[in-house]
Amino acid sequence: MAEFLKLEKFSIGVGDRFAHQAKAQLRACILAAQAGVEVIPVWNKSNREHTIIGSEPAVTRAAADAAVRELGWQRAYHVDADHIRIETVDRFVPHSDFFTIDVADWIGKPADPGAVKLFVERHAELAGPLSIPGIRGSLEVSRAEVERIAGKYLTAIQEAGNIYRHIAAVKGEGKFITEVSMDETDSPQTPPELLMILAALADAGVPAQTLAPKFTGRFNKGVDYRGDVAQFEKEFGEDLAVIAYAVRQYSLPATLKLSVHSGSDKFSIYAPMRRALARFNAGLHLKTAGTTWLEEVIGLAEAGGNGLALAREIYAGALEHVEDLCAPYATVIDIDRQRLPSAQAVNGWSSEQFVSALRHDPGHHAFNPHLRQLMHVGFKIAARMGPRYLDELKAHEAGVSRNVTWNLYERHLKPLFIGEAKPGFPEPAAPAGANA
Fold first, then answer.
1. Shared domain check, 231 and 103
2. Is 249 a member of any domain?
3. Which of 252, 293, 303, 375 could form a disulfide with 307 if both were Cys (CB 3.0 to 4.6 A apart)?
């Protein structure tokens, strides 16, 4: 292949529901670069989000391009068609150079017996004891287990191949970055499963540069990881080891890396992830999804006046429509409805009370993770407001963007990729102009 678009070692997926925070997000990557670490922004927005907002992929591309131009960013950047399927991919093809192919719904669908037999015969190396550098001991996998795993995943891999070839037919081979998403499923993939998935992707001719597996524990939207951190660190390290092995074994792209979805605000696992990445000298793609939208609401609430009134109104609307808002996100939220304050109570809150409840500060006595998760999925309420919401964003741009930049740099990029020793970015309450 003459030309191959490569994904850089570290990248961060930045969601921007309303396409107003691209510059604020890019400033966080600029701060990381100034601290000595290149983290490439990947603006991501799913078909579901576009449908809810009433936007088009062209808007996401335009916002990213404008931010890069206005801030003089000289490094790479990408626009991700997030969680696309064959029926939704076409609207993204002209505007995206990164495609997250979601095949979770195909996992477990019975594979063709002939395809399973062919896979097992082609990959005799997968049966028996298998030694992978970085994983303690050997993996003992029987031929029957290889057949079981192939039967579980081959249909999903074939669908990934179908979608990849559909995109390539229009954009051209090597002109885009491919991610394969398998995280929205019931159980985490074991090291043998991950290895066989990668072998099958190589067989299918899918040059994946990131793979999003399922991990143990809960990766709920906008709140911290819930689970056994030590077990996660073990799984994460084993997955890195499998990827490094598979790249050599099956001639997959050297840029292949793990992708962690719903990775925003998973503060308790950032240090273990950083340790593992250093140990394997590995890359990472982290998706922060709706965190930016929450920072917009925080910025409006901080402003007081009309901004605070609008934030209260969004919460009241989300509370009124809690069933409909939560249904599409049932697998990635845990909301105790008894812990949600009434709309009447919130209408009496000050800016400080609202911000303290919503801002993700687990150590703060007023932080309410149930309210935060509801607001995370409540962007549909703001979308229905149309220009009213967007006009408030414009009116309070300085405060909103300061929150967006601070959150992304200080709470995500810095602990995950940089560590605590580098210069910081002023707190959101800093004087005006701190985000310049």
1. yes
2. yes
3. 303
For the chain, helix, strand, coil in percent to 5 are 55, 10, 35
Cα–Cα distance between 18 and 41 in angstroms, integer? Answer: 17
The rounded mean pLDDT for the chain is: 94
Which pLDDT does position 427 carry in this prediction?
73
Helices and strands counted in the chain (H then E): 17, 10
**355 with 261, same domain?**
no
Are 186 and 265 within one domain?
A: yes
What does the alpha-carbon distance between residue 205 and residue 164 come to, in Å, rounded to a whole number?
9
Domain that holds residue 75: 10-289
Quote the CA–CA distance of 357 and 370 in Å, as a whole number: 9
Residue 84 main-chain phi, psi, to 5 deg:
-90, 155
- Using a pLDDT cut of 90, give the percent of the chain over it: 90
Task: Identify the band that residue 421 occupies on the pLDDT scale cut at 50, 70 and 90.
Answer: very low
pTM above 0.90, yes or no: yes
SS3 35: coil
Phi, psi of 265 (to 5 degrees): 70, 20
What is the mean predicted confidence (pLDDT) over 12-32? 97
Handedness of CA 108, 112, 114, 119 (dihedral sign): negative
**CA–CA distance, 262 with 376 (Å, rounded to integer):** 12
Query: Tokens 């850089």 sit at which residue?
Result: 8
Domain annotation covers residue 402: no
What would the pLDDT profile of 108-123 be if each residue is shown by its tens digit?
A: 999 999 999 999 999 9
Token digits for 248? 């050599």
The residue with tokens 């009309």 is 306
Listed in sequence order, the residues at least 6 apart from 93 whose beta carbon sits closer than 8 Å to its beta carbon are 81, 167, 170, 171
Tokens in use for 91? 């609207």
Per-residue pLDDT of 209-253, as tens digits, reads 999 999 999 999 999 999 999 999 999 999 999 999 999 999 999
| Phi, then psi, of 422 in degrees rounded to 5 | -85, 160
Tell me whether residue 224 is exposed, middle or buried, using C-beta atoms within 10 angstroms of its C-beta: 0 to 12, 13 to 18, 19 or more: middle
- Do 268 and 312 lie in one domain? The reply is no
**33 within a domain of the structure (yes/no):** yes
Mean pLDDT on 133-143: 94
SS3 34: helix
Q: How confident is the model at residue 433 (pLDDT cuts 50, 70, 90)?
A: very low
Using the structure block, give the residue that is written with the tokens 């076409």: 90
